[in-house]
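Long-time lurker. I teach an intro course on protein structure, and each term I like to show students one example going from raw sequence to a predicted 3D structure in token notation. This year I'd like something fresh instead of my usual example. Would anyone be willing to generate the tokens for the chain below so I can use it in lecture? Attribution to the forum is fine with me.
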Amino acid sequence: MMETKSIMIVGVGGQGSLLASKLLGKVLMNEGYDVKVSEVHGMSQRGGSVVTYVRFGDKVYSPIIEQGEAEYIISFEKLEAARWTPFLKKGGTIIVNSQQIDPMPVITEAATYPANILEELKEKGVKIDDIDALSLANQAGSTKAVNIVLMGRLAKYFHVDYDKWIKAIEQCVNEKFVEMNKKAFELGYNY
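-- Reply from a regular --
Happy to contribute to a lecture. Here you go:
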């Protein structure tokens, strides 16, 4: 029997974390796992912090991930990676878009964006897989494809055929954007 595995997708509102979790859930369900995906939490419309939990295994009883349980954290932005690190399991990996998106306190100059976030996490022994997902998304044809670039990167850690991910993209993405998203996925996968 396979133990339940947990993945967190963290980012800022409007970055497409919902599509990313839908795609991941679809791939895992197509593989025959029981999958639970939680709702998005946070002020998603206002550029606030957004979190989605994806749990899968033979039988999943709850979508909630506690501190120290996530095998993977997919972070759309560096500060979000640091914020959610306590949820990472020992030996887990954070896949992070190396982009900086200033939160409201930084924009209003009530705070400054911390320097060297990823370097500090690495020094603490956190496994960081950082990728310039924004540049790759641009290369694919849209800055909005950062989410799919990150899913492509995550796919490298899974024993699921590349073609099955592509099939899930075809199932989850609006027809007009399928080719662009396939390209974004490929760029993340081959990074």
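Some talking points for your students: Helices lie at 17-30, 78-84, 104-107, 117-123, 133-140, 146-155, 162-172, 178-189. The chain has one domain: 5-189.
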